[in-house]
Amino acid sequence: MKLDMIVNQPVIEAGRFVLRPVRKSDVGLLELFAGDERVARFTRSIPHPLPPGATEAFVVRSQQDNPDEYVWVMDGAAHGLSEVLGVVGLKPIGPDQSEIGYWVAPAYWNTGLASEAVTAILAANPLRNSSIVAAVFQDNPGSARVLTNAGFDYIGAAEAFSIARKGMVDTWTYLKKLK
Questions:
Q1: How far apart are CA 108 and CA 134, in angstroms?
Q2: pLDDT attached to residue 1
Q3: Is the peptide bond before 49 cis (omega within 30 degrees of 0)?
Q4: Could you tell me which residues are beta bridge partners of residue 72?
Q5: Are 72 and 12 in contact (CB under 8 A)?
Q6: Straight-line distance from the first to the last Cα atom of the chain, in angstroms, rounded to the nearest whole number
Q7: Given strand 18-21, what is the order of strands in its sheet?
Q8: Is 161 helix (H, G, I), strand (E, B) or coil?
Q9: SS3 at position 85
Q10: How confident is the model at residue 6 (pLDDT cuts 50, 70, 90)?
Q11: Which residue ranges form the domains of the chain, and what is each CATH number?
Q12: Is 147 exposed, middle or buried (0-12, 13-18, 19+ CB in 10 A)?
């Protein structure tokens, strides 16, 4: 697998870190953090346990031209923090609309990093979206606070499949208009 491709994606400044494209050297820390059940259970797409090769495949997908999802690593190395604090992604879902998703390494939970990442992505609006949607599991009120603090409006409840939980999970859905 080729893991050293360069992605044409902007580096976005945030308060205590930068949001930058995923790179090959991130594999170890991404695997460590995404392999943590506490992280996986609050996402739809991360399996637990994390199968061999899953992180490398994620890096390859993240580095493709025209990916299904644009992913940035929260990199705090320049501020004395970890080179990988978490990730934030934008998945185009329609004309001028994306869905945002994010996770933060458990050591950095409740420190405001997710809020900084979401705020930075919204301000940069790298995909030039007119709106962004988000869905969080109802048993994750911290992620709901991140969204409401960033100006997202609650638009309803639904459910989504979680690979780590191997079943459907109740969600809250949010919308942020940008233009």
A1: 21
A2: 32
A3: yes
A4: 21, 88
A5: yes
A6: 39
A7: 12-13, 18-21, 70-75, 86-94, 97-104, 131-137, 167-177, 153-162
A8: strand
A9: coil
A10: very low
A11: 12-129 (3.40.630.30)
A12: buried
On the CB side of 158, CA atoms within 13 Å amount to 11
b/e 99-117 (16+ beta carbons within 10 angstroms → b):
bbbbbbbeebeeeebbbbb
Q: How far apart are CA 135 and CA 144, in angstroms?
A: 8
Q: How many CA atoms lie within 13 A of 153 on its CB side?
A: 6
3-state secondary structure of 57: helix
Dist CA 137 CA 88 (whole Å): 16
What is the structure's pLDDT at 7? 55
Tens of pLDDT along 13-61?
999 999 999 999 999 999 999 999 999 999 999 999 999 999 999 999 9
pLDDT tens string 106-121:
999 999 999 999 999 9
Buried b (16+ CB within 10 A) or exposed e, 13-47: ebebbbbbbbbeebbebbbebbbbeebbbbbbbbe
The β-bridge partners of 98 are 92, 132
